Amino acid sequence: MNNQKLEKDWGEMAERFDESTRYVVGEAICKEISERLSKEKNLGEVIEFGCGTGYFTRAIAKNAARIIATDVSKDMLDMAKRQLEDYENISFQEANCKATDFPDNEFDTVLMVNLLHVIKESHRALGETRRILKPEGLLIAVDLTGHGMKKFEMLKLGFRYLRKIGKPPKADKGNLSPVDLESLAGKAGLKTEENILMGSEVKAVYYRGKKL
């Protein structure tokens, strides 16, 4: 899928994205992820891949020196700009997480929330992450997952997704377990520091890894 198609698909969802997400996965897991992100300290110079409307960008803003929030969708970025206009340490840029123009060893932290399970060639995004991270730089990757969910809850979530959003995007693997994410990160040259499954009904993998 080319960048123009990606931008169009995600752009069409921008206005209703936050509402749709809360409907599909529920308030509880979104709040839990935000609260966990807000506890991350001393993040330094941060780049976020797939920032969407900036919902989770806000959670780390006070603990980062600077954040460049990126997305392939201009419409998503426009929404994020409106929602985060009061944050002076956040700037916005269109970028493809698999190939950016940033120099090597540029950032202290890379953040990606609900990105890896919706893209193809996720290994390229992780390879790019390692390239632009400083030595000992941190990756925080959070992905919603069906791993560990009860079958009935999975069916309900799938129904809500189809009803509100439609057919899921094509991805390498749309349902990453903690083991899957750790394996992908390890192959990209990242050493796991933390890798947990969070959530009660709807689950998410919360991964922290350092550049080797």
TrEMBL record:
Keyword entries, A-Z = Methyltransferase, Transferase
- Extract one GO BP annotation from the record: methylation
Q: Which residues form a coiled coil?
A: none
Per the record's keyword annotation, is RNA-binding included, yes or no? Answer: no
Any Pfam family matching the protein: Methyltransf_11
Domain named Methyltransferase type: residues: 48-140
Its transmembrane ranges are none
User: Which Gene Ontology terms cover its molecular function?
Assistant: demethylmenaquinone methyltransferase activity; S-adenosylmethionine-dependent methyltransferase activity
Report the domain of life of the source organism: Archaea
Q: Which InterPro entries match?
A: Methyltransf_11, SAM-dependent_MTases_sf
Which E.C. number(s) belong to this protein?
2.1.1.163
Protein's recorded name:
2-methoxy-6-polyprenyl-1,4-benzoquinol methylase, mitochondrial
Organism the protein comes from: Candidatus Methanophagaceae archaeon ANME-1 ERB6
